[in-house]
Amino acid sequence: MTMRRTLLILMSLLLPVTAAAEGEKPVWSLDIDSVEVVTERHIKDIGVQKSVLDTTVLHENISLSMADVLTRNSTLFIKSYGRATLSTASFRGTSASHTQVTWNGMNLNSPMLGMTDFSMIPAYFIDRAALYYGTSSVGVTGGGLGGAVALSTAPVEERGFGLQFVQGVGSFTTFDDYLRFTYSDGRWSVSTRVVYSDSKNNFKYTNYRRKTGMIFDDEGGLVGFEYPVERNKSGDFHDLHLLQELYYNAGNGHRFGLAAWYLDSDRGVPMLNVDYRDDADYSNRQRENTFRGVVSWDMIRGSLKLGARAGYVYTYLGYDYSRQIGGGEWAQMTRSRSYVNTVYGAFDAEYYIGRKWLFTAGLTAHQNFVVSKDKNIIRQDGNSAIVGYDKARIEVSGHVSAKWLPTERLGVSVTLRDDFYGTEFTPVIPAAFIDFVASKRGNVVLKASVSRNYRYPTLNDLYFLPGGNDTLRVERGFTYDGGVSFRVGGDGRFSAGGEVTAYDSYIRDWICWLPTAKGFWSPVNIRKVHSYGVEVKADLSVRFGRDWRLALKGNYAWTPSINYGDPVNWADESIGKQLVYVPRNSAAVTGRLDWRSWSLGYEWTYYDKRYTTSSNETATRFDELGEYFMSDVWLEKRFAFRWADMSFKGVVRNLFNEEYESVLARPMPRMNFEFFIGIKPKFPSRKK
Description:
Distance between the termini: 42 Å
Mean pLDDT: 88
Radius of gyration: 26 Å
Helix content: under 10%
Low-confidence stretches: 1-39
Oligomer: single chain
Structural class: mainly beta
Number of helices: 4
């Protein structure tokens, strides 16, 4: 009854809009009482806590990175320094290094830092994206103490030639370009994608970290301060991405594939708003060249599915910091260079026995070669010294699982994984899942899972000079979660679903970098973190009349993440406190209203306050980042001509001109705009 009332309220709100647009009362064809379940249960997803992002979300516009997509469409916390700057994701109050990321099966986490920069992943390059929470990540990869993000590309769906070009022009002298060429004839599928982004990124902001004057009332009392309006300094960026794909379907159950992705990035590192130097007095830049390539083979024959993959990754990462010392001369303070070479191989198998059993197995291997050094360190004798390391490490992960449907309503699954890093094996990583269909009407499913997991230290943790600690212990975690989900509709007129999950996670020997008496920082196993909370996801899609469609999605996360580790000293006040940069509450809602060839979208996100100190002090403006609400809105019009399809889209970001910081001393842009023009010439084609 509650659902029916909610739908009637939504309909009554939209009725005047529809009538105004059409000039008459619309004819409703939605019959709530006759809605039936049409979803199908998949044995592969028994008990799995998983979110799948569809291509509509991923390809919303070319300026979005995966960091933007995850912010709006998941319960993950995205710690962002702004567009085209470091953006990392964390599940359930864990750190960014506890989130494992794969692309076509290959690990994207840096073997040096252990994390992935999602600002470097254009959402237009991803065709499939799935988020695996907590225990569910064990079936995907090892080391995901928080969870895993699985990204992949896919063959072209339409036969014939295809061409698409999108031009974006936005605030702060921003230009985004996207070009894609495709061809498919049923056996061969070819796709070439190019994304280029260029921006001065010199937005204005009010610098509340700097006072320029005082404000007094008529009686001479101090009532406030004056703050200057400044521009984002050294934040320009130039990013080029090229993705080439080639697939061949042999027609006898075999398919071969190739995906090659090249990145060339040149980015300025923005100044902190507490740095008052002129941007002409220094140069602060980061450059990256990365190539990723994966070849694949898949075979399906009866109840057996086999797959093999091989890949290679090369990354050059350079960071240069120079400052002017007078007379037109510059001094190089930092010249950091990192080179990463990774060779990848994987094999996986699936075997069905009837409709009740599924057995899977997989083995992946990554051989990493890393050289990291700073060429500009000067010793006391006046000679330069190379600081860094040159190391290689192999990482192997294997798993087996059995999934069983003893009855139509009950599903049970067990996964065993073991990881090998260098010369060390982790203990066996077990994960158990169970789900039960409590009601077929509404597809109400109860889920529960439990697992332990391990994560080895990164190469920087172990070997970085100065500060690396080669005696670090592996991080260990236990995760328990349970929840309930439902799904109704699916007949094209109405669909609704939702999920509520509670989880409890413990991580021991959490690695934390701390200052030492020698003047540098070093990692130690110090923390015991207890993370627990609740995640809520819901969606609604309603089609009414012939031309109208409303789609709503939302998520909410309550995420206490508490440090219960050993005190560093008698004055350590971090015990029992929330981890830094982890909001206790976060939420996001997206809505889309379609009418004929028009689309209107609204996106709202919310993050609770975040502490910047482990003691959760709030004495100064530097100890806490305030909560903020972010609103984006867009309007799109599509045209269909005989020779091409065209679209015009306008986006307003930060609609209410919010002033906020996601990271301390890193101001974010206020209201800004971008306009997109897209064109897809029409070639003779037919569906597969």
